[in-house]
Specification:
Metallo-beta-lactamase, Chain A, six-stranded mixed β-sheet, alpha/beta, 6 helices, 14 strands, 27% helix
């Protein structure tokens, strides 16, 4: 059984996820915790539930999804797992931090590059890596096949899709990713997006105006 806790962090209202199984091993996906109280909330939840952080994962590296990377990496002694193609996106955060008058964000010193088709493991959980570019140049989604749960970053939202007007974005590529990587999953698959509420693959195939 894979359990999921979502947090809405920072001024961009980004969804951060902590996922764990019966062993208490957990993964932290897209930590957007920027403020001290947000970081404390995340840390307190993990510690009060006796969770054991094993993986720090980024679906992609736009600023709202990486604001807590250094905190999580330092606090729990974890390397950051990301697609190598997202390094250029990470470098773009310097422009955004300057624009929003935020401190510079540095890439955590320890990084692990992940590739589409690979499997990630923590506890008794196995996550599949799906390559889903289009919102960013090398965005990935994480799929837990046993429980039919998908963590899609900003690729697919409820009745919407990720924006494609940022560097590395492409509407044709994004739609191709959705149709060829996500819409081939079972209709009952629950989608945990980088913003907004959850949905399912079946609902989006039927009602999403951008992909119908």
């Amino acid at each position: 059984m894979l359990s999921v806790k979502s947090f809405v962090f920072n001024e961009f209202q980004e969804n951060t996820y902590v996922i764990w199984d019966q062993t208490k091993a957990c993964a932290i996906i897209d930590p957007g915790c920027m403020h001290a109280y947000e970081r404390q909330e995340l840390k307190q939840f993990i510690e009060s539930n006796g969770l054991l952080p094993k993986l720090l994962l980024n679906t992609h590296c736009h600023i709202d999804h990486v604001l807590g990377n250094e905190f999580v990496a330092d606090t729990f002694k974890l390397p950051l797992h990301l697609h190598e193609g997202e390094l250029s996106t990470y470098q773009e955060t310097k422009r955004w931090t300057a624009l929003f008058n935020m401190p510079d964000l540095a890439l955590p010193q320890q990084t692990v590059f992940i590739k589409e088709g690979e499997l990630l493991h923590f506890g008794e959980t196995e996550l599949e890596i799906l390559f889903t570019p289009g919102h960013s140049v090398a965005s990935v989604s994480f799929f837990h096949r046993k429980s039919l749960q998908l963590f899609s970053g900003d690729v697919l939202f409820k009745h919407s899709i990720g924006r494609t007007d940022l560097p590395g974005g492409s509407l044709p590529i994004l739609l191709k990713s959705i149709r060829e990587q996500l819409y081939v999953l079972p209709a009952a698959t629950k989608v945990y997006s980088g913003h907004f509420e959850t949905t399912t693959i079946g609902e989006e195939m039927q009602y999403n105006p951008y992909t119908r």
